[in-house]
Amino acid sequence: MSDYEMMDKEEIYSKVLRAGRRTYFFDVRATKAGDYYLTVTESKKFTNDDGSFHYKKHKIYLYKEDFTEFKEILSEMTDYIINEKGQEVISERHQKDFKREDDFVAQEAKTPEDTKNIDSFTDISFDDI
Question: Which CATH class name applies to 3-92?
Answer without folding.
Answer: alpha beta
